[in-house]
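Question thread 4412

I'm putting together a teaching handout and wanted feedback from people who do this every day. The idea is simple: show students a protein as raw sequence, then show them the structure tokens that encode its fold, then repeat with a second protein so they can compare. Below is the first pair exactly as I plan to print it.
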Amino acid sequence: MKIPHSHLKEVSMKILEAIGAAETEVDVVSRSLLMADMRGIHTHGINFLPKVVSRVENGVMQIPTELEIISDEGAATHIDGHNGFGQVAAEQGMRHAIEHGKKYGVGLSLIRNTNHIGLLAFYSLMAAEEGMIGLVMTNSAPCMAPWGGAEPFFGTNPFSVAAPSGEDYPIILDMSTSLVARGKIRRAVRLNKEIPEDWALDAEGKKTTDPVKALEGTLLPMGGPKGYGMAFFIDLISGLLSGSRFSRDILTFHKPLGPTGVGTMLMAIDIEHFMDMKTFTGLVKDHAGSIRSSKKAEGTDRIFLPGEIELEAERRSLRDGVEIDEPTVKELNTILEKYDIALRMDGADN
């Protein structure tokens, strides 16, 4: 089903308001979820709302979010998310990083005791739009084995980098350190589809195309030992250094078992501390042009820059509506009815 982005945002905001979220966090969380769906990253989109509702109803998530600034000295900020919205904590963390970056050339925020922060590009883009390079990383619940292992130990531990391009939209990289995000396997379960056999191992450490068995087993790191090494250090910085949980101690957001204990790092690098912005964007444009015009492999018509495929998806969503799968539509309509909200995902008023 394709739904106008404005209606999708209204549904999200009404549900968040109904469960007690504050006005400011309703806006931040809704924009984050909507951006994910519009860019085709449905694993981090509005399908997360039923999980949020479940966590709040079961008393394992604290909203409104009450952030605590533990320290804010020099270029570094340390924040306790107190088990509130991860999006709210991360957005505030990046705002501090941007502010300090403009003053010192670089700003860095570490966040402890928060939850799933959603689409990481949402925050790296904040820095890029301020003429800076944004870097975001976060740990997550164990679902990926270390290289050579068969036991979930690390999360997908994603990271994102964004930079101004001199064009009308920044260049953005947003990726997990597992071969695929676990959300893609959950999505395959919802849609009753098989997965490629190189995505995951089952509980016995064997490759599987069954998404249910994959969820009972473990994901595989991208690039083998390289992805494992990246996941290790993202966990070390985001979790261990921030004073949050890490590796096997993080709880999943998808079941109301208790506070997840996610840790996050956000950084902003001020380009003009090192180079005039016009010079930088000119170099980036020339570099991008060289990449696009370089020799293409057989069967390839176009070489994309990081984030271009998602950007084009976002523009299509803005024009044609946002694609939402049927199970998510049904779940959200159930919540809308439960909280007596006079909206439905098909656009009709109740």
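The second pair follows. I'd like the answer to focus on this one:
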Amino acid sequence: MDLLVCLLVLSLGPLPAGGEPLHVLEGNGLTIHYAPSLRKAAREVRGLYPEVENELWGLFEWRPEPKPLILITEGKESSLGVDWEETPISAFALPDRDLVVLNWGRVGTDPLRLHDVLKHEVCHILLHQRVKTNLPRWLDEGVCQWASDGMSELLAAPRPSRLNEAVSTGNLIPLKQLERASPPSENDLLLAYEESKGFVVYLVNRFGKSGLINVLKLIAEGDSVQDSLSRVTDETLDGLESDWQTSLKGWTLWFVNISQYLYEILFAVMALLVVWGFMRQAIKKRAYRDDGPQDESGRDGDLSAP
């Protein structure tokens, strides 16, 4: 079933999934649709949602109105139009429908990850409710990662930093290319997420949380992204992007160069520790001999001897 058709059915009532209708859990203004086997998950999300909303209020002083519709899936339903096996995405939001979709198999095993991913997706809903103009994808994703302690919808499997590699090779993606469409390849998609977060964190570090919030408020009032940034920072977007990239090169290139010799460095450190341990033992033994009992001639003696 096409995703848009699926969502239309969802808005009218429970959606068939794998031959079984979805169940519905409501409470405190929140509506959750879930696969029959995920009732406990639905209750967990319902209990977690007020905390997430309050944390977003603390950041933006905005609340989602209306509250998002949440769909919890096992990640097996073909009716969603999403091939979960082929995508690194573990959740997503459709702000124009106030919908958050969670793949429970990927987010439900770790309470901390569930909290941060839910916060990330609700942040998307919140931003698009307040900012009626089209947000650039880099700003949308960057703000939501910053708000959710760096968490994104992507699986949290350990990966080398694409950003470090892109800086060292000069292959950063210009922010203008990340305004609307997502990169087609998975590697570029991962890099786009890292760049989006990195640039927003740079803005917060330079101009403070209040600077970022003021930019978003100006955009919500109808200013363009470029004008909003200029009014708050007195700099152009291109100038800020260039300064951010320059700030990355110092520590990133140092890290990349050091990492190329990581094994050699670790081996040298371990060798020094072994040498230091040997020297300490030798010093202790010598000190023990020097402090030991001696006869009248100054040589080591036996105290029990007559």
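Top answer:
Good format. For the second protein you could add a caption like this: Residues 1-130 form a domain with the Glutaredoxin fold (CATH 3.40.30). Strands lie at 16-17, 20-21, 23-27, 30-34, 69-73, 91-94, 99-103.
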